[in-house]
Amino acid sequence: MAGGILRIIFTGDDLARVRIASRADPLWETVASLHRFQAGDGGAAMAEWRRRARAKLAETGLLQDVRRMLVPLAPRAAYFPDFLTPIEAQQGVEEGIQAILDTPPARVRRELDLLRARHGLPAHLESLPDDGPAMRRLAAVAAGYFQTALGEHWGEVERAVSQDRGTRVRHLADGGVEGMFTQLSPKVRWRAPVLEVDYPAGDRELRLRGRGLTLIPSYFCRTAPVTLADPGLPPVLVYPVARTGVAGRKTGGDALAELLGKTRAAVLRCVGLAPGCSTTELARRAGVPTSSASEHARVLRQAGLIVSTRHANLMLHQITESGDALLRGTR
Length: 331
Known about the structure:
Elements: E1 4-9, H1 12-16, E2 18-20, H2 26-39, H3 43-60, H4 63-73, H5 93-101, H6 105-119, H7 132-150, H8 154-182, E3 188-191, E4 194-199, E5 204-207, E6 213-218, E7 236-240, H9 255-260, H10 262-273, E8 277-278, H11 279-286, H12 290-302, E9 306-311, E10 314-319, H13 321-330
């Protein structure tokens, strides 16, 4: 793949419409993990994920279908079809899979033509745009791959993405959008009104034209940021998050849970990973009723581990230095 520069050109309206995805995107992670599956990179930790994923896919009978259907459509190369990573996937994997099924056949055909011209296309996928059962099979294989290869590790993926999102929110609060861009990645440079990105697929220019930009932090994206090939689709920039190990890594014991109790420790971690979250969001992330999340937040606040501020009808929670030190000391 030839290196180049992606130049994302902003207007004033675009700067006001920059957003950070609220959660890990299951289909971008699916495609990026397929690239890791093929590349053999990432050191011992990622090698362990590949070994386990391959074993589970073989055990469930999905490995052959993944190799026949998904790998040819998502080669580790400069291009793969955009319909594999619809914006609807930010609402969840089911919504993303349905969006793949709802892709107009003409668009599927057009993107497969590009794939064929650049990297080739196996004969058994040629009829995909006009074959409803084949598209449903593709969707089923994608859903099965996600559940089998990523499902066990999804909590770690979400934690890494949430932690990165919290960092971006702090940078946004301290330095605005432009300040956040300067700290996004060594491969990204802000030169107003252009965001320059080291890009593996050659030189490109993306004019936002008032549509804004969605930043999508990604666990399995490991090299350079990436965007959609079609400039007419909602603009996104997918970039790698910092990771300390492979998804699913286990540590010996949970000292924080022993100290605070399992649920309260989970609430503290949620506040640490998603600064500024509301009580409702805290309950959703911790998997507890809102009343329970509110009570745990009260205890943590009294202990000086978090602070809470009321904005209209929302109670927003931030971790304190003491709370952050406790989290860092128990990781």
